[in-house]
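RESIDUES AND SHAPES:
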Amino acid sequence: METKQVQFSAETRNLLVALYSRAHDAKSDRPILGDRLAARAVESIEDYDRLKTQLKMRDDDAIALAIRGLEFDRWVRDFLTRNPRSVVLHLGAGLDGRVFRIDPSDEVEWYDLDLPEIAQLYRDLFPRRDRHHHVIGASALDPAWLADIPADRPVLVVAEGLLVYFTEDEVRDLVTRLVNRFPSGELLFDAYTPFSVKAMNKHWTVKATGKYFVWGLQDPKSLEEWAPGVKHLLEWTFTDSPYVAHMPWTSRIMCRIMNAIPVLRKYNRVMRYSF
């Protein structure tokens, strides 16, 4: 396969961690996501093996991210089944070809949004889809891009691996802006507790990328106070997934320990809200 000279800056190298997790899963004997586009993308990146080594990527971390990604995908499909004519805002999309895995109908307007440099990497590595799929180069915190999004239908906001890098005030402003823009919708994101934010900032992957976590969420209900109509629906943790069985035995034991200790069980959760 022809390789591409795709340039990764210090700001964008952390994207390879999530991309690697999906590629690793696709190449495994028992895939969870089965994202063949991710596998093709990493095979096309020149000098990818060196970058992978620098980021200290491990198989158990890759499996955990694939498990989390599968739960996001499941909730996205559920929303689109109930809201066939809708808008999907995939904020901080990075190098995630989720739109190809979901394959939404033409009634869905799908927006993959990330910083301009990252949006260009996405265009370099993934094929064009159709006129209902849009790639936007902007910060999720910039209110300007939202003015161009149709607001006459329900919206699904997906923010996997994003909000933890913002301050609480920035997350609050973003959530409030989205809730006020659309008639109804749902918000999906992963959240760490304040305790786990501190712990994750000592993790080898975080240290290798240089992008440190900021925001921790202790009580999911606290977001209901940010804007009228916001309601916490579900909280999910990857240690509940049957796919934990795909992990090395040491990681399986760790998941059992985490499930037994409340503070560790809530280490990293996927949250679902309606508004």
